Amino acid sequence: MAGPLSAPTEPGLDPRVARSRATVLRAAAALLIEQGAAGVTIEGIAERSGVAKTTIYRHWKSRSQLVFDAFESMLPSMPAQDYGPTLRGQLCGILNQLSRGLTQSEWAPAVPPLIDAGDRDPELRQLVQAFLVVRMERCREALRGAMARGELRRDLDVDVAIGVLAGPVFYRRLVSREPLSEAFVAEVVDQFLRSGAP
Amino acid sequence: MAGPLSAPTEPGLDPRVARSRATVLRAAAALLIEQGAAGVTIEGIAERSGVAKTTIYRHWKSRSQLVFDAFESMLPSMPAQDYGPTLRGQLCGILNQLSRGLTQSEWAPAVPPLIDAGDRDPELRQLVQAFLVVRMERCREALRGAMARGELRRDLDVDVAIGVLAGPVFYRRLVSREPLSEAFVAEVVDQFLRSGAP
DNA sequence: AGCTTACGCTACGCTACGGTATCGTATCGC
DNA sequence: GCGATACGATACCGTAGCGTAGCGTAAGCT
User: Fold this and answer.
1) How many beta-carbon pairs below 8 A join chains A and B?
2) Where are the alpha helices (DSSP H) in chain A?
3) Does residue A62 approach strand C to less than 7 Å at its CB?
4) Same domain assignment for residues B177 and B108
């Protein structure tokens, strides 16, 4: 499960192979960001990366495999950040990070194509799920902690709550395309907290 | 603004032209639904519709124009439905209709490609916006009415509220892909109402 | 009926891309 | 240094799709 880019895949590997793989994946990710899933072509990657097409086919047996790996390579690691002791601060922190990730991060432009592709490709769908699970795990923890401390109603459905919290952020990014400010996040969190009081 | 499919475009038009246009747009919409935006090709439409490729080019000067019209032709009309007098009933009705539209309607599979395409194509983006404005106008009305009646806090930001309501529905459809039940919608609405009490 | 016009059909040329084969060369491990 | 091997370059073949041209035919209008 080690990221094929950051970690040098395997220790006893020919450095030439590692270099090629990394270069190709970088170019593929760049194309993915700039032109969407349809823009990721073998020839385009070859031209952009300087790695010969034949070499690409030596490492990936098909285009879809490569696209898959490109997606995977750009899943950013989640920095274990401390958002403070209060539930409100934690939720605001998590949602603000999500919001920044969806709008300002380098992989932000890849989100819509990823969602589109996930609707048709089961493998990619799983990848997206995994990505989200990691992202939202901290949110789930924060909610569970608050419920245990009695700061939230005990009968709260955590999955629904996550949808209520993250949904508006995704909605603004993907659907309404209104600006995603910290004030908006704070408003969403405050509404949620008002509704979730025990 | 008349839909090019349902309404016979213009009265004094050669019926052969009207037929061709309608047939082509139907096929384009079908391809859009089945294979996403990338699947809408002139040749594919020609084959599927039985309309000759040359004829298609007689009516649309470029592929993107045709894709645009195909999108437009499938924007369903919003039936002016009555959801009863209570705010809760209205919101549940609107969100359930949205939820059904996003998952069960014929155009449901076209939503992710539409969102993806809208991220890159400004014209399509406007189309999506127009679609949403129509959809959400009734929601906005319901909220304004409730605020006027004193059922909601006066200082509620309507745009934020719409995001809080519609966001979770889109989130389940596009991101988490959890099932979209009426119970979920009711839970979202109830949480919103608890948080918006005056 | 006769004229107009839209249509279907076939055939093109062009580009982009997928995927494979061959061969000479550069790089790596030992 | 030397053999193994990964790489780059080029040349292919096949497919899909865009967009155009020319021509015969059929449908519509009057």
Assistant:
1) 125
2) 15-35, 42-49, 53-59, 63-73, 87-103, 111-120, 122-148, 158-170, 182-196
3) yes
4) yes
Task: Please report residues of B whose CB lies closer than 8 A to that of A171.
Answer: 163, 166-167, 170-171
A68 CA from C23 C1′ (Å):
32
Q: Can you give the distance from the CA of residue B71 to the C1' of nucleotide D20 in angstroms?
A: 26
pLDDT by residue (tens digit) across B100-159? 989 998 778 888 877 887 777 777 777 777 777 777 888 999 999 999 999 999 989 999
DSSP state of A157: -
pTM here? 0.81
Measured between beta carbons, the chain A residues lying within 8 angstroms of B35 are 120
B50, burial (CB in 10 Å: exposed 0-12, middle 13-18, buried 19+): exposed
* B97–chain A nearest CA distance, Å: 17
pLDDT tens digits, one per residue of A99-133: 998 998 877 888 887 788 777 777 777 777 777 77
Question: A38, A73, A108 — which closes off a domain?
Answer: A73
State which residue has its Cα closest to the C1' atom of D5: A14
Q: Identify whether B82 is part of a domain.
A: no
Residue B2 lies in a domain: no
Tokens coding A177: 């395309």
Is there a single domain that holds both residue A99 and residue A142?
A: yes
Q: pLDDT digits over A168-189, tens only?
A: 999 999 999 999 999 999 999 9
Average pLDDT over residues B38-51: 92
Contact state of B168 with A174 under an 8 Å Cβ cutoff: no
pLDDT for A119 equals 77
- For residue B170, the one-letter residue type is F
